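Now for a specimen:

…
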Amino acid sequence: MSVEARPFAPHLTLGRARGRERRRTRRLATTLERLAIEPIAWTVTHVILFSSDLSGPKPAYRPVHTIRLRAPAPPGDAVVEGR
């Protein structure tokens, strides 16, 4: 694997569109911006880092590393540093 010259730019990809699909994606984004969407909440149990290969006709994604997360402490059981 070669090292890229450009600086690393961490990001979260929620979707990808190429070519003609970009126009429809822009229309969808405009429609979504007009909606009053209520926030949602869920529990995240792990995070997976993926490597993406965009060189072929379709993107290929490969899991590189998984980080399991611990459950948060119950309310009132706050951890105080230095005690």
